[in-house]
From TrEMBL:
GO terms for molecular function: ATP binding. This is ATP-binding protein. Residues 34-45 have a biased composition (Basic and acidic residues). It comes from Natronoglomus mannanivorans. It comes from the Archaea. The keyword Membrane does not apply. Residues 1-60 are annotated as: Disordered. Residues 237-488 form the Helicase HerA central domain. InterPro entries: HerA_central, P-loop_NTPase, T4SS_component.
Amino acid sequence: MSNDIDDILDNDPIADDHTEPDDSSAASTGGDEEAARADDMEVPERNVPNGVSEPSDDEFGHVVASEEIHVSRRDYQVNAFVRTGERDDIRLGDYVQIPYPDDSELFAVTDTLRYEPYTDLDDKSDAHNQISAYADLDESEYVQIAELEPLAILHGVGTDDVESGIVNRIPKPNSPARLARDEDCLRTGLNIPGDGIFAGWLSVGGEAMTVDGEKFPYYLGNPGFDRETGEVEDGEPAVFRHALVAGSTGKGKTHFTKNVLRQFVSEKRYPIRHHDTGEDQQRRLNLVIIDPENEYWEMGEDNSDIGGDDVIERTLRRHGVKYGGVDDLEVFVPQVAGTNAPSTTESRELSIPFEVVRGRPDLLMPYQPTEITRGAIIDCIDAYFSCFDEQGGYPERDVSRPTYEDFLAFLAEHDDEHSRLRAENDIGGGTWGAVQRRVDRGTFHDVFDEGTDFLPDISAEVFREGQVTVIPTSHLNGAKDSLTVLSLLSYIIENKIDDYQVDPAVRNTPLLVAVDEAHNYFSSADSLREEYILRRARAAVKQGRKYKLGLCLITQNPDDVDDDVIKQINTNIFLGLKSEVVDDVSSIPSEFAKDLPNFGKGQAVVKAPDVEAVEVTGLPYCLTKHGN
């Protein structure tokens, strides 16, 4: 037996927990009886050094003195011996505190658990394995070590002003190690806000942590405008630093997302500068949800499993969790020819006008044309809108606003190779034929100008502050879905971040745009239209904080979302994912990558800005109606 193991036991502050057996007792019934009697003995009084806190119920062991202890700028080695009686309660991911000889403590996480043999036991035999390892295991034959990863040093522990600092001190040998079960220490060590957007319970191994008998709530920091003080709260709101919610089918992704989005519906106001006047205003958030599965309209209704359950309701209120159907929710159904509107609660129509193509000609290019054809299409689009503006429409065709059908009629008028349009832009016969084939497509006929409630006309109602706007697209598929959603996204993004001729309803309202099945719209580009949307999305995520625009991307395939967009997302929520997906997503915290494929429903890893990556367990019930 190595001297290291002997030193571990010699330095154990509870010496009677491990009394080295002789060769005969190690494998005998008498040894078991001695161990049982030792467990019943009164624990000797501990010698507590000056400045070290008294042992607590959460103390499980001590810093190992017989192995090297070091902390450096590059790596660390801090190991703790786990007492026999505490071993069944220690888990990977448990948070640990180790006191220094003052009022500060090392805050760490359990990174590795390992056993080392204590006796000269040889268990490599058939005879040994005929005995049940669980029923007859003698823990005194082994040493259990917890390898710890230091996260911070906490100052002022035990006071009302706990502060976190960098790890620049080494813990003393034999210092007691205990599980972190103090709310202030946990919040400070992990830098978790004390309020904000409730995302679930801090957990380890799928089990919610408890502090003083209460589950520990995890919040995303989301400061805004304090109506009581009249001041802007400190910090960057999480809502405008963008979010990703990723999870495989069956892992509770929509359920989890609904609960998080429900928390953004409040009276909270965010400071925003009016585009025209330059006046600083405080306005409530408008939440827009692109809903491809027709699920989010249910957020307007209560979950009957919660209502009337006093225990659940008291718990939610105590932790500031908003629940119940959203009163101010509107459903706007895109009108597209050849489709049947999805079944939802009461809804309104929404039409995509051809005029959204003005300044966005790539919307008409779901392909990769040659540069010559692309230039000719852009010239034709620009010429159409210029002529329309100069003439104030086309009264002879009874056209008072630009339409797709009128655009085709305009091209038909210039079919002659000697027409001014073709002559001025040097569009030859072959190129002209390519233009006509490219722009005359069934999808454009079906999507543009269907219905009467055009987006620019009703934008003040779609993007009204304090409202949840649900846009279901389950009745669409393929090219119709792509054109509709990308037209909506481009309208929102460009009116948010551009400076010329913007829609004031979009520009002057704080917006959070949640896009489910986001990989369908923000993946690598295969066409000019997709390239255009990605360029605008990249600009939006970079400037979102400035213009009060947040994106929440919801997907089962985060590996398909554009890397430049992913890199700008600050809040990442990963539910269970397939191992091949985990391998391809660089933003997944490495310490959780191995476990994610085995996560249960509602179990997630959350990495928020300036906060340690932690495990969170979502609520087992949805805070609003959820049919699936």
